[in-house]
Design a protein that fits this description.
CATH class of chain A: Mainly Alpha
Order of helices and strands of chain A: HHHHEEHHHHHHH
Structural class of chain A: mainly alpha
CATH superfamily of the largest domain in chain B: Response regulator
Oligomer: heterodimer
Strand order of the largest sheet of chain A: 1-2
CATH topology of the largest domain in chain B: Rossmann fold
Radius of gyration of chain B: 24 Å
Number of strands of chain B: 14
Shape of chain A: globular
CATH architecture of the largest domain in chain B: 3-Layer(aba) Sandwich
Radius of gyration of chain A: 19 Å
């Protein structure tokens, strides 16, 4: 019984990490087709904002929201200064965002130093049989699912979501229909950035904040979104579900290393069999 | 002798001009101001720089203090710093540059065992001298390599004796970083567990970028050890101590480590997360000795940074002090002369952590060791001290007097 609870927790915990780190990328890369190599650093900035808020005595849950907003604003600045000139120029975007990533790592190291800044994980643990699980892990799962549901509802059921999806699908027609294309791009980029900032803030209590934090997660996030295929949300959810189930079970049975290796191995096989990703053949959905 | 007026002017002006030439002035001091070049290769940047930053400053401080006191053998020291950026490629590039281009007579540096093993063959090829100022897994037998840090027989043996026998931590669960330090150290941890009549339940390795320790923590909970032994390394692995406290807690299971603290983890974790972690060390700022207090206050004054210095900072001064004493005894700063002096076994200094004596048989250092425990004020309480522990593990396998050409790193065997 407690073994079952343990596996469920490990899978759920892994799922929440996969969802959190790739949701922002699903918007920026999955929808907008902007290869943002600085995505990991946006995550790192979110974590730093969270530790800063904590430093000033701001409530942790409020800091999550503030961090998301702050990184969202930062996203607007980056979009206006860099990204908006580079839509459709994949290699140039790649170089520019890679440069931005190096700049952010260097800048944060200069300002905050290389050491890990930390936020204590709140809430203690809950005991199930032989296992104690951090309650914060359960909260992370809840936040991940809530973020997912919010993004889905926003995309699927609001007028703004419709406009964004239409603009991403065919910018010229949308512009002809009176949509301010540049504004939509900017806000969508900011939205993706805010989701990434939220992820960084939520991860801060379990991994801390340090300048090279993003490097640990960036590859995983891209693999998840790419494996998901062309429907950013459905794809990211299904890929996260698949990978976290594998990771949760294999990492618990053997080791974290074997768990990660298995995930990469499965991703390779998956992309060989379904080159367009899990949602490659689906035509409807977001 | 009589001089005509013309002859006098010729001679005196010539002499004056000649004597004014700077290089002649310098040479006339019998090479007195020719600096002795000291290389320092550490990570100012890169993922592991947290281990190096204080050591870089302490090395510079030690060199500056020697210069302020008149230099070595009447010559000033010139410190040449190279940033190895936590990347072995730069260690190999810069150690070559230090020895060949900059002609450093000694290189202090290398933080990880992997960086040391990159540099050691190059130091041997160019007949240089490497001071490796870092705790490590032991066993390097090489006269061109000097270890001033702790090895397992010094650090882990008393730690395991204390944890297994006195605290009753018979069943151990070992977590280690996935490179040569972690692999060899985990074997020592298994050996010391068994030597004390305990049982090592499992050994797990983690690459340096792992941050999700939940699966490992669930395996620990299923195995129910008395104590978890960590040889984890680097900023990402700090997450383990955080997640351990959030799911198991040190009230329910002991946590001891051979590598905690040297990356100043205790200043980065919350008081609850660091409280109660047990480790063995050769220096913490909290040592109640005049030398330790003097070092910490000098370091604070020198750097303007009043934060925790820690063991890896102190290693910077220790390495330079030990080397400088060897130079004084040799009466010559060249690498080979210093190696000869070290072989005598008489090179001994008093540093911040007490007496440091280089063992001539192994080029490892005898030092005081302390068992300490993390407390709620993010520092350490000293529980017990051991005076002058020799590097026994390396002494058992290495004899540089008998085999001066040995270059091997001997590894422990665990049946």
């Amino acid at each position: 019984m407690d073994q079952v609870a343990n596996y469920l927790f490990q899978i759920g915990f892994s799922f929440s990490i996969f969802i959190l780190i790739s949701l922002g990328l699903a918007v920026i890369f999955g929808m907008m087709r902007v290869i943002n190599l600085a995505q990991g650093e946006f995550l790192m900035l979110g974590a730093y904002f969270c530790t800063l808020c904590n430093h000033f005595g701001i409530n942790l849950w409020l800091s999550f929201i503030l961090s998301a907003l702050a990184v969202g604003v930062f996203g607007i600045i980056v979009e206006r200064l860099v990204i908006q000139w580079l839509y459709g120029r994949i290699i140039d975007t790649l170089l520019a965002t890679w440069g931005l990533s190096l700049l952010l790592v260097g800048g944060v190291t200069t300002i905050f130093g290389p050491q890990t800044e930390s936020v204590a994980a709140p809430l203690g643990n809950v005991q199930v049989g032989a296992f104690g699980f951090p309650i914060y892990g359960l909260v992370m799962m809840a936040i991940a699912v809530a973020a997912l549901a919010a993004v889905y509802a926003f995309w699927r059921f609001t007028r703004y979501g419709l406009i964004v999806r239409g603009t991403m699908q065919n910018p010229t027609i949308s512009a002809a229909l009176g949509v301010n294309r540049s504004l939509v791009y900017m806000l969508t980029f900011a939205f993706g950035s805010a989701l990434t900032g939220l992820a960084g803030a939520v991860l801060a209590p379990i991994v801390g904040a340090y300048p090279t934090l993003g490097i640990v997660y960036i590859a995983k996030a891209f693999i998840t979104v790419i494996s998901g295929g062309h429907l950013p949300l459905v794809g990211t959810v299904s890929a996260s579900g698949l990978f976290s189930t594998i990771d949760g079970i294999v990492a618990t049975v053997s080791s974290s290393v074997i768990g990660e290796m298995t995930v990469l191995f499965v991703a390779i096989i998956l992309l060989r069999l379904l080159p367009l990703g899990i949602t490659g053949r689906m035509t409807r959905g977001v | 002798m009589r001089l005509s007026r013309r002859q006098f002017f010729q001679a005196s002006s010539g002499a004056l001009a000649f004597a004014s030439l700077p290089h002649v002035l310098r040479r006339a001091g019998i090479a007195a101001e020719d600096p002795i070049k000291v290389g320092n290769i550490l990570d100012r940047t890169g993922i592991l720089n947290i281990y190096s930053l204080k050591q870089i400053q302490a090395t510079a401080m030690a060199v500056d203090e020697i210069n302020a006191a008149g230099g070595l053998l009447g010559r000033p020291l010139e410190l040449v710093f190279y940033d190895s950026q936590s990347d072995g490629q730069y260690n190999s590039q810069y150690v070559t540059e230090a020895l060949v281009k900059d002609k450093c007579v000694v290189v202090h540096g290398g933080i990880t065992s992997s960086s040391r093993e990159v540099m050691r063959p190059i130091v041997n090829r160019f007949k240089g001298l490497l001071f490796y100022n870092s705790l490590y897994e032991g066993g390097v037998c090489d006269r061109r390599h000097v270890s001033t840090g702790m090895v397992p027989a010094q650090q882990l043996e008393p730690l395991f004796d204390y944890v297994v026998n006195e605290l009753g931590g018979k069943r151990t669960y070992i977590l280690a970083a996935d490179y040569n330090y972690g692999h060899i150290t985990s074997k020592w941890m298994q050996k010391f567990t068994r030597d004390n009549g305990g049982e090592d339940l499992a050994v797990e390795f983690f690459p340096l970028d792992v941050t999700n320790f939940q699966p490992a923590i669930s395996r620990i909970q299923a195995a129910k050890p008395d104590v978890v032994m960590s040889a984890l390394v680097g900023g990402a692995h700090i997450a383990f101590y955080r997640q351990f406290e959030a799911s198991i807690g040190k009230d329910n299971m002991m946590l001891a480590s051979g590598s905690y603290g040297v990356g100043l983890e205790h200043t980065q974790l919350s008081p609850e997360e660091g409280n109660g972690i047990i480790l063995a060390t050769s220096f913490v700022d909290d040592l109640d000795t005049a030398e330790a207090k003097d070092f910490v206050s000098r370091f604070h004054a020198y750097t303007g940074d009043t934060g925790y210095v820690g063991e890896y900072g102190e290693y910077g001064e220790r390495g330079v002090k030990v080397w400088a004493e060897a130079v004084r005894q040799a009466g010559d700063a060249s690498s080979d002369a210093v190696i000869e002096a070290l072989a005598s076994g008489n090179v001994s200094v008093v540093g911040a952590g007490g007496q440091y004596t280089v063992d001539g048989q192994t080029n490892h250092t005898t030092m005081d060791i302390h068992i300490v425990r993390g407390n709620m004020s993010q520092t350490f309480d000293v529980i017990r001290s051991f005076s002058q522990r020799p590097p026994l593990d390396t002494q058992q396998v290495c004899d540089l007097h008998a085999n001066p050409d040995d270059k091997t790193q001997y590894e422990v065997e665990v049946e």
